[in-house]
Amino acid sequence: MKTPRRKFPVRRSPSRELAELRVRLADTEEMLRAIRTGEVDTVLVAGNDGNQVFTLQGAEHAYRVLIESMNEGALTLTTDETILYANQCFAKMVKCPLEQVMGSSFCRFLSAEDRATLRPLVKRADKFGSKIQVLLMASDGSQMPVQISIRLLAQNGFKHAPVGLVVTDMTEARRNEEMLRALTHRVVQVQETERGRVALELHDDITQLLCAVLFRSQALVDKLSARNGPAKKEAMKLREMLGQTAKEVERISRNLRPSVLDQLGLVAVLRDTSTEFAQRTGVPVKLACVQLMARLPADTELALYRILQEALKNVEKHARARHVTVRLTHEGAFVQLVIADDGIGFDHPAKRKGKGGLGLLGMRERATYVGGALKIKSVRRAGTEIEVLIPLPPVATAAIR
Ligand SMILES: Nc1ncnc2c1ncn2[C@@H]1O[C@H](COP(=O)(O)OP(=O)(O)O)[C@@H](O)[C@H]1O
Ligand SMILES: [Mg+2]
Q: FRET pair for 101, CA 20 to 30 Å: which of 6, 86, 172, 183?
């Protein structure tokens, strides 16, 4: 807050007085500009009876109404976190009378861990602001997830400028996030069960049936003599097409639920999938896998396999890549899978405003479900890299070493 001072003039020579009046006029003009632009809300005028304080009520009143009607907590703090001012909404959030909130330390509403995170942000607060998410502890012991925006309030390098906080209740946002997570997880689970069911039906019914038809078409070819030249040729073609169809059905069934994964493990299935992809699409895949001495947990193996499958599907569908690299490594107690392509790249998912399907979402969900994390790095015209990091249980970690 800027607080200009006024001094009564002292009698001087006419020319000095004129110069002084000019200075005062410029000064007054500057103050009027500051009042108009809202830089000043209090004016201190020095008079014979001492200083007089003029509050520019119009401007201040509007700010107060705005802040008190906010649905968010608003506070000003000193840099050592003493609360100078808080609105009613914040008092309600912490279930504490406003008069007990003001003058107390903001720290009392945070856990020790959150205090340590907030402290440097308040100390180094600037006019650009920063944000953190913490748990606000109310006076009755209840907790509320909140986001705190921190910003230095004064401009022009004021020495003891207050820090402004806006505290937003994130309960609803967290609940929505959790619901979305649960829903995505359910989608992935249903997808997995359905894939298993279809794979079984394809394998047990369709493949068996195709084999029987293939067998009979072979018998037909054998029965037809050379005299039935065109018919025999047709029967041979039919047998060939049936053979291809059986292979394709087998491939689809394997992708739906690969028996190789159950029988031979992750590295074998990563190799199979990469080879099949390279042969079918003509895009070479460079595969580098760490030696695994023991099987990883079944959930982790399935998640990594599905993520590779989905990532390769995206490369085929969208990337226009010339090369793909697949790398399985272990970093300490983590297993890491990276799938990189040198294709056209794409904008960050957050910028895509709901465009795109469930693929990336499903990949992230699969990684999160087994306690891991998924990072997507994509640069337009340079390519895309999907990195999955999954923690391993101590037994599996020991077996890898
Ligand atoms: N490797 C990639 N190269 C280029 N674009 C990609 C790649 N992977 C994903 N994308 C982009 O991200 C979008 C979302 O992918 P995804 O969630 O798998 O949905 P879908 O493949 O069904 O469109 C795609 O539509 C595509 O534009
Ligand atoms: Mg996709």
A: 172
- Name the residue type at position 5: R
CA distance 59 to 37: 10
Q: Ligand 1 atom 19: the closest Cα is on which residue?
A: 357
Asked if residue 379 lies in contact with residue 341, where contact means CB atoms within 8 angstroms, the answer is no
User: Directed axis angle between helix 171-201 and helix 229-256, to 10°?
Assistant: 150
Mean pLDDT across 126-133: 89
The DSSP code sequence of 289-308 is EPPPSSPPPHHHHHHHHHHH
Neighbours of 172 (CB within 10 A): 9
Ligand nearest to the CA of 315: 1
* Backbone dihedral region for residue 298 (phi beyond 0: left; psi -120 to 50: alpha; all else: beta): alpha
Report field, pTM of the whole predicted structure over 0.90: no
Beta-bridge partner residues of 373: 389
Upper half-sphere CA count for residue 343 (Cβ side, 13 Å)? 25
Give 61 or 294, the one with higher predicted confidence: 294
Instruction: Give the residue whose CA is nearest to atom 24 of ligand 1.
Output: 356
d(CA 291, CA 303): 18
CA–CA distance, 232 with 235 (Å, rounded to integer):
5
Q: 297-315 pLDDT, tens per residue?
A: 988 999 999 999 999 999 9
pLDDT at 177: 87
Task: Give the E-state strand segments of 27-98 in sequence order.
Answer: 42-47, 50-55, 73-77, 83-86
Cα distances (angstroms) measured from residue 345 to each of 152, 315, 340, 385: 39, 10, 10, 9
From 8, 10, 9, 12, select the one nearest 50 (Cα to Cα). 8
CA of 318 to the centre of ligand 1 (A): 6
Q: Specify burial of residue 165 (Cβ count, 10 A radius: 0-12, 13-18, 19+).
A: buried
Alpha-carbon distance values, 207 to 18, 211, 251, 263 (Å): 106, 6, 11, 20
User: Could you identify the atom of ligand 1 that is nearest to the CA of residue 358?
Assistant: 17
Pairing of strands 324-331, 285-289: parallel
Say which residue the tokens 């000193």 belong to. 78
